[in-house]
Design a protein that fits this description.
2 copies of one chain form a homodimer. In chain A, 36% of the residues lie in helices and 13% in strands. In chain A, the strands form 3 sheets. A 7-stranded mixed sheet of chain A has the order 2-8-7-6-5-3-4, with helices on both faces. Chains A and B meet through α3, α4, α6, α7 and α10 of A and α3, α4, α6, α7 and α10 of B.
């Protein structure tokens, strides 16, 4: 096979269905952004929406904006827009709180629907907040519950008739391994357990069909592939068949059937609003809505195909141009088995990523030695992948990463 | 006593210590804003900070801003700034989530410190979200707990040796009645119970001294008197003596001792960070920080004195100019016994407030028939109080409120 050239990669972008989307992102000059799996970049409409929400809705409309600017409906209206991206119906998704808080709500709600069953099952090495929150659920919730974690390949066999809930992250935050949502959900149901999917590394990047898989609950993140901004609110999904029975512990006033009646007794709202807790974060949710609106005319199948095209190109270029540098593939080689990012391992991973960032190629590092690269068709081109691999090749070949400027660890992230 | 004139009121503003603060608020033209107890108005610095956080920190800094723009430290840095306003020490306050979620965290954490005690005590007619969340705590938490509510004057007597936690709102959202924080906290402690204060209608408006009262836990709102914007994040306080033992159920990754170590087991952060749950809402928290910074050179005693001067003026003008219109005072006549808003009752309260709003006097309505007026020295003047009462007088005298335009109920709030 002839080695690819930069011109070959550029040619792959000529028919891009996402050129108009890319133009809406305000990426820094000379930046190749491959960290959309961690924090999506700024979209022009988000900047404009933040300004309008602050200056007009808050500044001029003031408290009236609960009605006139649609603040009250925002969590459900935005949930409906996200629903389309994850195979959910309207009124099954609501935007609220953080992913962590939503894991708490849906895991506790699911466990309450399976009284007498002891186990909550998850994956060893799952994204930590899921495990930490499940620990909190087990520690504080009424019945005796126990968090049991297993290696990925053991999970289906571990689900038994003492299992209340299975909580898994659809795409693994380091390895990018993707669970077979249909098969795992079926295994949970076959044992009478309920299934919670964390879609943080899926939503907006891979095709997700929650209702096709008969999923019970899900949560997901607003600031990764949905580009909703730092600390954007998250979302929660509850299958319509469960909604009438669902009670979640964070029963704040916005989850009440009639929050402005100001009565003492809690009656949950009829539908998905019962997943709400306190007053919604209006500025953050408004910015997220502007970001999600960019997906309105986007076909998620095309997004997925293009993501695979980008990541397959990356792997081929790594093979052709970075051989012998000690970089090993952590993610599945089979595109169908992975999400929309790829992790490589290298002993000097931290320093390598710092060196890449210094050259404008922004991926990220995850302890102890993984470097991650996100593939986001709405703003990343094939030629960007070439340029990123070329930067990596040069850094490895010249050992530029060995500079103390790159090996010195910073405080966080 | 001679009746006051508008000129008398204007004269009261000539020596205002807050003229420079008022100039920083971007109030709509011809608006007298008396709803700061519900949603504080926009400050110029908040508008600018929102723009900078979005365009520069997010847009340009991207993921690097966790370090370079201080995102990681924001919840504690901002908590320290709020601490000064409520009689707390640095590192006892953190900004996170909604008030409702924080009530859940601290009430559950407090209850866990008092195992074997059954009762959680609160006030009948407390702000509903507190009662709803405490219902959730009792419904879902491990031990058998029961929420018992009492009328305000019965509470101290109701606290007994089966009481785990007392949760009260310092200033009542309708009546503005203010609890004696020292006396009630002492009564809780005398019975071995812990005390949680909801400072939503206090912070930024009345003098609060949590440590002076030996309070155990507190929560408060970012979008009322702190002017942090719609749905601004809230805060939680834990007295330093409790921090080493405190465990709260929403144990997300930002409450971990080392969130970026990505280990499976949860170890709470050493200090107040353990009250954090998920990724902080950076845009909302940044806007709130800009709002709180306006208090940096403000003496809360002067704020309180001026608030009382404004509300006493309001009551005198209502007496002098609105007598015989059927408006009755719901709030305490004694300024020391009330917070920074005043509620009046009238059968046609809803329509009266709509008519006031139509004339640019923005207060709010609370079911079934209360109209509320907030007194916020940083941007409300004595002459504004005159103009507001004059508008009210005219509306009552002409029965302008009886128009169908005002009597027809809108959807929410």
């Amino acid at each position: 096979m002839t080695k690819l050239t930069r011109a070959d990669c550029a040619a792959m972008d000529t028919e891009s269905p996402f050129a108009a989307h890319r133009a809406q992102f305000e990426l820094p000059q000379s930046c190749i952004y491959m960290n959309g799996n961690s924090l999506g970049p700024l979209i022009r409409a988000c900047r404009e929406r933040a300004a309008a929400t602050v200056a007009e809705e808050w500044g001029v409309g003031l408290i009236r904006s609960w009605n006139t600017a649609g603040w009250y409906d925002l969590p459900v209206r935005l949930g409906d827009k996200i629903a389309r991206l994850i195979g959910a119906q309207a009124s099954e998704v609501v935007v609220a709180d953080s992913t962590s808080a939503n894991v708490f709500k849906v895991a506790a709600a699911a466990a309450a629907l399976r009284p007498g069953r002891r186990k909550i099952i998850s994956e060893k090495g799952n994204f930590p907040t899921d495990l930490y929150v499940l620990d909190g659920v087990c520690r504080f919730m009424g019945e005796t519950r126990e968090l049991k974690t297993f290696d990925r390949h053991e999970i289906i066999d571990a689900i038994d008739d003492d299992t209340a809930v299975v909580v898994l992250t659809h795409v693994h935050y380091v390895t990018s391994e993707m669970f077979d949502m249909v098969a795992v959900t079926r295994a949970a149901h076959d044992n009478g357990a309920l299934m919670v999917w964390d879609l943080s590394h899926s939503t907006g990047a891979v095709s997700v069909d929650l209702n096709g898989a008969h999923a019970d609950f899900a949560v997901g993140c607003g600031y990764k592939y949905l580009n909703g901004g730092p600390g954007a609110p998250a979302f929660a999904f509850v299958a319509k068949r469960h909604l009438p029975q669902v009670r979640q512990p964070l029963s704040g006033w916005f989850g009440h059937a009639n929050p402005f009646a100001f009565v003492d007794d809690f009656t949950p709202a009829d539908g998905i609003r019962r997943l709400l807790c306190g007053t919604p974060p209006i500025i953050g949710a408004s910015v997220l809505e502007a970001a999600v609106d960019i997906f309105a005319d986007v076909d998620m199948v095309t997004v997925r195909q293009t993501s695979i095209s980008l990541s397959e190109l990356f792997l081929r270029l790594i093979e052709e141009r970075c051989d012998g540098f000690g970089l090993s593939l952590v993610s599945p080689a089979d595109a169908d088995a992975r999400g929309s990012h790829i992790s490589l391992a290298h002993e000097q991973g931290y320093a390598i990523m710092q060196a890449l960032i210094a050259r404008g190629v922004i991926g990220d590092f995850r302890a102890p030695h993984f470097i991650r690269f996100g593939f986001t068709p709405l703003y990343l081109r094939h030629v960007d992948v070439w340029d990123a691999v070329e930067a990596l090749r040069d850094i490895m070949e010249t050992r530029a990463y060995a500079s103390p400027a790159f090996t010195h660890r910073q405080a966080v992230t």
